[in-house]
Structures are given as C-alpha cells and as structure tokens.
Amino acid sequence: MDTAPIAARLARVDAQLAALRRDHAAILAASEASNADDEHDPEGATIAWEREQVAALITRLEGERDQLVAAAGRAADGSYGTCERCGGEIPAERLAVRPAARTCVGCG
Q1: pLDDT tens for residues 64-96?
Q2: Helix 4-33 / helix 47-77 crossing angle, nearest 10 deg
Q3: Structure pTM?
Q4: What is d(CA 62, CA 12) in angstroms, rounded to the nearest whole number?
Q5: Domain boundaries, the chain
Q6: CB atoms within 10 A of CB 87
Q7: Cα(65)–Cα(20) distance, rounded to whole angstroms?
Q8: 99: nearest Cα among 60, 71, 61
Q9: For 6-49, what is each residue's pLDDT tens digit?
Q10: DSSP characters over the chain
C-alpha cells in the first residue's frame, strides 16, 4: 500500500502547525505588550477573538496530526488500508484523499 500520502499530509500539517504556533505566539506577545481595550474596538476583530481562532485551528491540526501518526503506525504493522470495522480493503482512492482513514466508505 502506498503510504506517500501519509508522509505528504503529515509534512503539510507540521508546516501549518509551525506557522500557526508562531502566529499564536505573536498574538500573545501583542496582547501582553498593549494595554489597549481591544474588546470594545469597533474597528474589527479583537485580539482575544484572533487568539481563540488560532488556538482552535492548532487544536484541530494537532488532532489531524495524531490521526496521521496513527496511520503511519498502521502502515508499519501492516494494517494500513484495512477497514477497522468490516476488515475489508479501504480503496486506494479514499486513502489518497484521506490518508488517515480507518474505515471504508461503507463503514465510515
């Protein structure tokens, strides 16, 4: 089974996580360096809102990363591409689109 999609997606997720973590750190630094009351700024999004949005994206990507690492583990033990529910083969097309898929379309 071709596991290149796992590695490719994992590399993209790691790059996105690194960028988001830098953004989050910059937002935190900006909020600590400023005593402005951004919660009542009519001009746009608050620093708190931006911080929470970035934190939510980080959490989602960390979950996706965990799933990809688990998929790599299944590839190593030979169970990658096998549906965890019915034991059937997960089509390569599904794995190309969703490298961390644990179930076939019928069971998913």
Answers
A1: 999 999 999 999 999 999 999 999 999 999 998
A2: 160
A3: 0.83
A4: 12
A5: 4-81
A6: 10
A7: 14
A8: 71
A9: 999 999 999 999 999 999 999 888 877 766 555 555 665 677 88
A10: ---HHHHHHHHHHHHHHHHHHHHHHHHHHHHHH----GGG-TTS--HHHHHHHHHHHHHHHHHHHHHHHHHHHHHHHT-TTB-TTT-PBPPHHHHHH-TT--S-TTT-
List CB contacts of 1: < 8 A, sequence separation 6 or more.
75, 80, 81, 92, 95
CA angle, corner 49, sides to 47 and 50, nearest 5?
Answer: 65
Position 19 scores a pLDDT of 98
Across-strand partners of 82?
89
**Residue 7: predicted pLDDT:** 94
Please name which of 46, 41, 47, 16 lies closest in space to residue 29, comparing C-alpha atoms: 47
